[in-house]
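ugh ok fine here u go
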Amino acid sequence: MPYRLYALSNAGSMFALLSYPVLFEPEFGTHRQASIWSIAYGVFILLCGFTAFRSGTEEAAVETVPAEAPAAAKPTARQYAMWLLLPACASLLLLAVTNHISQNVAAIPLLWCCRWRCTC
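structure:
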C-alpha cells in the first residue's frame, strides 16, 4: 500500500516547513543557505549522473512475448487525427478560459468586497 509513503512524505514536508523558521533561518544567513543549497544540488546532480551511468551499463531484462498473442492492429488515420485533435481541444479550452479571466475579470479581489458592501 503506497498510502503510508504518501503520509510519511506529507509529514516530512510539514516538519520541514515548521522547522525551517525555527532551526535553519536563525542559524544560517541567506548567503550561507545559498551555498549550502548549491552544494546539495551539485551532489544531487552527481548522484543522478552516477545512477544514469550505472543503469546504462546493465543489461535490460528481455520479456518474451507469448507466441499466441495477436499482433496489434495499426492505428488508422482517424485515430491519429483524434489523438491530435482531442489534446488540442483541451489546450484551446485552457487558453480561452485563461484569456477570458485575464482580460475580462478584475484581478483585484477587494474590488468585489467594496462594490457589494460585504465584509472581507
